[in-house]
Amino acid sequence: MTFRTTTALLTLAAIGLGNAATAEIRLGASVSATGPAAFLGDPEAKTLEMLVEQLNEEGGIDGEQVELVLYDDGGDPNKARTFATRLIEDDEVTAIIGGSTTGTTMSIASLAEDEGIPFISLAGAIEIVDPVKEYVFKTPHTDRMACEKIFADMTDRGITTIGMISGTDGFGASMQAQCKDVAGEYDIEVAADETYGPGDADMTPQLTRIRNTDGIQAILNPGFGQGPAIVTRNYSQLGIETPLYQSHGVASDAFIELAGPDAAEGVRLPGTALLIADLLDEGDPQKEVVTAYNTAYQERYGQSPSTFGGYAHDAFQLMTNAIREAGSAEPDAIRDALEATEGLVGTTGTYSMSAEDHLGLDLSAFRMLEVADGTWRSIE
Q1: What's a single GO BP term from this record (predicted)?
Q2: What's the pTM value of the predicted model, to 2 decimals?
Q3: Under 8 Å between Cβ of 313 and 47
Q4: Per residue, what are the HEC states of 96-136?
Q5: Which of helix, strand or coil describes residue 152?
Q6: What is the pLDDT of residues 290-315, one digit of tens each?
Q7: Which DSSP category does 348 fall into?
Q8: In order of start, what are the domains of the chain with their CATH numbers?
Q9: Phi, psi at residue 375, to the nearest 5°?
Q10: d(C-alpha 40, C-alpha 29), whole Å
């Protein structure tokens, strides 16, 4: 895979296109393919590479080939902004996909707004699209929606008092705040509230304090990356028996592998249809989409795709569909067509956007999942 980086020569990195001169529609992307958020950005980059090649082999968009200029920001918001600037000013892209994390997304989003370039984020925080920004859209469910899905499941189980242990990164802090804000709507009390830093390697003290808090019936861990896997291992090592919930920020097979199947057994989280593709009913509107993506990704890379690659898949489909619908690659025309998206079925859900909603998903697109025998199963 070819990326532009800060040390690379500033020559066009056309992905899926043999000759840059033949490209007629130029899309930009900045993802975290390396660094601490590589588990997000690597499958996103691979997905975008694959989809561009597929699209061009099929004739492009109304006969026009697509070129993707792709940068690896390593999860650094400053690099993400630098690359977004380069994409707009030097590469002259018509739209941008990316922002694997909330931090990198917000760096790109501010520039996209200033320059009038449509941007679809791959990150989870609600602040990305609330309040609505004219040129900024996103594909993952928001962290607030994840809180609501989790609390609905807790309510069904009769859970009313919980402990939280949250990452202090942008996503973890945002979801922590959203869960605390929405907890009262589900009559759930947050009786213990702990945090951990991105570099922490042992969360035993925080989990011990939660365990020793009277009345705790479940533990919720807003976070992404390695932190939730460590929390899960420590939770198991301490022999805690109250249910453990994780966020959609770790909805992938990699989480189970990192935490260990035994430690992760019984963990619940809100995820997407992509993780249970084989279990979907034949009549499920997402089955065809997730099956096709799963098959193509496995054939090309020899591994299963992740939820995060699915976010990139949906962003690419949304963007290319908007270009078709607009009949133009002009940024404002694409923006308007994105906002008018209706009923586009992706791996994450079915998107219907509006001037008031630049995500276009509701809670029905979330699936409550549980780890059972080392894999995911639906509990709905």
Answers
A1: amino acid transport
A2: 0.89
A3: yes
A4: EEECCCHHHHHHHHHHHHHHCCCEEECCCCHHHCCCCCCCE
A5: helix
A6: 999 999 999 999 998 999 999 999 99
A7: S
A8: 20-141+288-363 (3.40.50.2300), 143-276+366-378 (3.40.50.2300)
A9: -145, 180
A10: 14
